[in-house]
Write a structure and sequence with these properties.
The protein has 393 residues and is of the alpha/beta class. It has a domain of 200 residues. It is 52% helix and 7% strand. The protein is built from 17 helices and 7 strands. A hairpin with a 2-residue loop joins strand 2 and strand 3. Helix 2 runs parallel beside helix 5 and helix 14 crosses helix 15. The longest helix is centred in the N-terminal third of the chain and has 26 residues. The relative contact order is 0.13.
Length: 393
């Protein structure tokens, strides 16, 4: 065999291997980015929300869209990204411009009936503005990004084989929380409240909580309320309504640790301005206050993330589905959400201010831990140490 022929054969073999890999990635479809239904999507497991969400959003065409930051992503999890017409399109560290882009793509879907949006205080902060060019390319559906992410990626091929392995193991191996409809049935939620008590914020060591507080405080200090972000939010709300899509807004729950950070860092005035901005645009349900959920550490995974059992109970209420106060945790969730509108926002904020003051006047582990985090930040600022770049989630 001549050297030239050998090179030709090697090139042909290389191309054949690449073509085979591309075909496999397309067929296995681990991110829901292609039309392939070779494997039942129930076995899909989305690991990288900023990679998969932009592509899945176009292919899944859900009726109900959940959107927000990591709070919604982790607190109302759908492992497959989309299941039974409900898609969780929340992304970690979401900024308002990124959420607006997701909503713009979602509104192209003629099947979309409703958007459930967990609106975060941090997205109205002018310093909460990290840019992600990779996400921008994906949400814009640029061909090069799509091909590189889903067809010419060894990660996609590896995730595809993991998907195939789960499918071969069968549906019986899936956890009830993975296969259940979204939101979960109330019976499953009540069961999970019991199971989830073996882990969470209530069992987290003080040193780890202190670390989480040191990271979280950069979401609120410095906090500069952005009128431009508020205007963008109002514009997006109007756009959703103009498409006759139901919009359900809520302010996600916050642990008392996080509420104390907001109070002690001096951002409470902006916190109220944030809620007034939402209420002026549309009614919402407010879970972010010194309410029965705030001091129940067992309802949280970390300082800023609530657990899925609480999240799906909230989602059932937001969607007008029956709920049940099966134990103290469920009762706390049920009692915490306050309906807010432009008409009652003043009364709600006055009530929440009284709740804040009552908590502040009672010495607690929350106030002490937050005070240490604020003092540490002030010492760093005095020393001229700048926080790490990024959105901190």
């Amino acid at each position: 065999m001549t050297a030239a022929r050998r090179l030709v054969l090697m090139a042909v073999l290389t191309l054949a291997i690449i073509a085979g890999g591309v075909a496999l990635a397309w067929l296995l479809n681990p991110y829901g980015a292609t039309a392939s239904r070779l494997i039942n999507p129930i076995f899909r497991k989305i690991k990288y929300d900023r990679l998969a969400t932009p592509y899945l959003l176009r292919e899944a065409r859900p009726e109900t869209l959940l959107i927000g930051s990591s709070r919604v992503r982790m607190g109302m999890p759908i492992e497959q990204g989309e299941r039974d017409g409900v898609m969780n399109a929340a992304i970690l560290g979401a900024t308002l411009p990124q959420l607006e882009k997701i909503i713009d793509v979602a509104l192209l879907n003629p099947r979309l009936k409703r958007i459930v949006w967990g609106v975060d205080f941090c997205i109205f902060n002018s310093t909460w503005n990290a840019n992600d060019p990779y996400f921008n390319a994906r949400i814009a559906n640029r061909p090069r990004a799509r091909i590189e992410d889903t067809l010419l990626s060894l990660d996609a091929l590896g995730d595809g084989f993991d998907l195939l392995k789960r499918a071969l193991q069968g549906r019986a191996r899936l956890a009830p929380t993975t296969a259940a409809p979204a939101p979960w049935p109330m019976a499953l939620i009540c069961r999970e409240y019991v199971i989830d008590r073996n882990h969470g914020l209530d069992l987290t060591r003080a040193k780890l909580i202190a670390l989480q507080l040191s990271e979280t405080i950069h979401m609120y200090d410095p906090y500069r309320f952005s009128p431009a972000m508020a205007a963008g939010f109002r514009k997006t709300v109007a756009k959703i309504r103009a498409r006759n899509v139901e919009l359900i807004l809520f302010a996600p729950p916050m642990s008392e640790y996080e509420l104390e950070l907001i109070r002690q860092s001096g951002a409470w005035g902006d916190f109220e301005k944030f809620k007034r901005t939402i209420a002026a645009a549309a009614p919402f349900v407010d879970y972010g206050a010194y309410n029965p959920m705030a001091p129940r550490d067992e309802l949280y995974l970390q300082v800023i993330h609530f657990k899925a059992d609480a999240g799906f109970q909230m989602l059932r209420r937001l969607l007008g589905m029956p709920t049940a106060a099966c134990d103290d945790d469920a009762r706390a969730v049920e009692e915490s959400g306050i309906a807010v509108s432009a008409e009652n926002i003043g009364d709600v904020l006055a009530r929440e201010r009284r709740m804040r003051d009552e908590a502040a006047n009672s010495p607690s582990k929350y106030a002490s831990a937050a005070a240490r985090a604020v003092a540490k930040l002030r010492a760093s600022q005095a020393a001229g140490i700048k926080p790490a770049a990024g959105n901190g989630e």
